[in-house]
Write a structure and sequence with these properties.
Blueprint: H1 5-28, H2 41-54, E1 96-97, H3 98-115, H4 123-140, E2 147-151, H5 154-157, E3 173-176, H6 183-199, H7 205-224, H8 229-232, H9 234-237, H10 248-262, H11 265-274, H12 293-305, H13 313-326, E4 336-337, E5 343-344, H14 351-371, E6 375-377, E7 380-382, H15 384-398, H16 423-426, H17 443-446, H18 477-480, H19 484-500
Antiparallel strand pairs: 1-2, 2-3, 4-5, 6-7
């Protein structure tokens, strides 16, 4: 019996609906769906912040979550009759280096400033990580005209392999002042204090004001008494944290942060007058603890893009040049990548450049989106979406999407480094071995092939070589050592990715 026209129409509609439903379901499970996540970014975010608790020096609070660590360095500063208890050990040793600690604090703050609104339950932990650094920097700058920039003799510390809780190497204190200046470490400290003041502006206004007042004074000191801190302190800070890029980049960076924190036009004038001489160098595309050129360009480009400060127009071009240098196939591409796709800048602690560059890509993408802008690479326009895609690929590699299927974050995923170059992690904890482990006795643990007894959760290490190889050897500090300044920018990137894939 022939179907009526009405029945035929109904049958066709049912077939169309069923086909559409099947197609939509198929689309929903393809990897290109916007909510397909390569990794558990939320878990990685939690761990990236937790790492900082494993690096704490000083009196640990009752809220301390990494339980195998105990109090350490409780008399730091006493040699100079100052209180320098607290702060962070920068990496796998027991020295407190002020230069990378200040940069770490700045980058943790910038992570919270840009992406803290997305962090949900992790925001408080991130702010506590900032405060552990900023509290120490307030102590280090408590005496006007003096900044304490290091606690511990690095050469003697490196001749021992001992837990921070057992330290018996000299806790020598090193400082800069007008007679032995250090514009680099001073201006970075000013940047850290200014950026931290923005983190606490709403939640703790009085603390925020204290940080900002100190930042203003410290920057004035950095600018008035110019010089590299590794000139006067060379035998103590080199080759560990020598200032290789000079101090001009830190002065520009510090001024940029003070401009952002104060909105005082004098900092804008300072940038306009000094910008070129302080290294608005378009050819320098490195960003890390020593070199702030690119970070300053990106930060200042926001003032042009979003706040329409026309006098900072050039920084948009400088920022574009950096971005173009990272993008394969563009006329200005300079970056090297491993066969597995990891940005590769240098053999020693390469992952710091991966995390800092990824953060800048995501942050610049945010600024461009606000301004409806794009990156101009010669005749090619690059969208913010492309920048986010490149950053995500780098973070995914770090988390295990790589030829070895290994995460370079300790404690994340099924496979990660087990023998990291880190004293506290590699030696038995105080709880399991209460008696002191002497300076040279610890080397038997360092040379052991056994996995580290204490898992330093969230630590991101130096990473693989230029051919994606990683031996997981404790003695290989270039590839196996974690550092606070590797993790700090990653915190912001992971917050963005966790949010964008609906994990927060």
């Amino acid at each position: 019996m022939a179907l009526s026209l009405q029945s035929q129409t109904l049958a066709l509609f049912i077939i169309f609906f069923a086909t559409c439903l099947s197609f939509c379901k198929a689309k929903a499970i393809t990897p290109h769906h916007k909510h397909f996540a390569s990794h558990n970014y939320r878990d990685a975010l939690t761990k990236s912040i937790l790492f900082f608790e494993g690096q704490r020096s000083g009196k640990l609070p009752s809220s301390q979550r990494i339980k195998w660590r105990r109090d350490s360095g409780l008399s730091d500063g006493s040699a100079m009759h100052v209180d320098l208890v607290g702060g962070y050990y920068d990496a796998g040793d027991n020295v407190k280096f002020g230069f990378p600690m200040a940069f770490t604090t700045t980058m943790l703050s910038w992570s919270v400033i840009e992406f803290g609104g997305l962090m949900k339950s992790e925001l408080q932990n991130a702010k506590e990580a900032v405060k552990w650094g900023s509290d120490y920097l307030l102590k280090a700058t408590a005496h006007p005209g003096t900044i304490y920039v290091q606690v511990g003799d690095a050469n003697k510390d490196h001749s021992c392999w001992e837990r921070p809780e057992d330290m018996d190497t000299p806790r020598s204190v090193f400082k800069i002042d007008k007679n032995s200046p250090g514009s680099d470490v001073a201006a970075e400290t000013a940047a850290a204090l200014a950026s931290a003041s923005l983190v606490f502006r709403k939640s703790d206004p009085s603390y925020s004001k204290l940080l900002l007042r100190r930042a203003i004074g410290v920057f004035a000191f950095a600018d008035k008494y110019r010089g590299a801190y590794s000139n006067g302190l060379k035998s103590y800070v080199c080759p560990f944290y020598c200032s290789y890029s000079g101090y001009q980049d830190e002065l520009l960076w510090g001024a940029a942060w003070l401009h952002k924190a104060t909105r005082n036009p004098s900092y804008l004038r300072y940038i306009q007058v000094n910008g070129q001489t302080l290294g608005a160098d378009e050819s320098d595309n490195t960003f890390g603890w020593d070199n702030k050129h690119v970070g300053a360009r990106i930060l200042l480009s926001k003032a042009f893009l979003v706040q329409k400060v026309q006098s900072l127009h050039d920084y948009k071009g400088h920022a574009d040049n950096f971005i173009c240098s990272l993008i394969p196939g563009t006329p200005f591409s300079q970056a090297q990548y491993t066969p597995g796709g990891l940005l590769y800048k240098m053999d020693d602690s390469n992952m710091q450049y991966v995390t800092s560059s990824s953060f800048l890509l995501l942050t610049y993408a945010k600024y461009l989106t606000s301004a409806h802008g794009v990156v101009s690479c010669g005749g090619t326009s690059i969208s913010p979406k492309r920048l986010r895609s490149i950053a995500k690929k780098q973070v995914d590699y770090l988390l295990g999407t790589n030829p070895l299927k290994m995460a370079y974050m300790v404690g994340y995923g099924p496979r990660y480094p087990k023998r990291i170059h880190h004293r506290g992690s590699s030696l038995p904890s105080v709880a399991s071995h209460p008696s002191k482990i002497q300076c040279s006795s610890g080397f038997s643990y360092m040379q052991s092939q056994s996995p580290n007894p204490n898992v330093l959760i969230g630590a991101v290490i130096g990473g693989p070589d230029s051919h994606d190889r990683f031996p997981d050897q404790r003695s290989d500090y270039e590839q196996s050592e974690p550092a606070t300044y590797i993790n700090a920018p990653l915190v912001g990137s992971l917050a963005y990715l966790a949010h964008s894939f609906g994990q927060l």
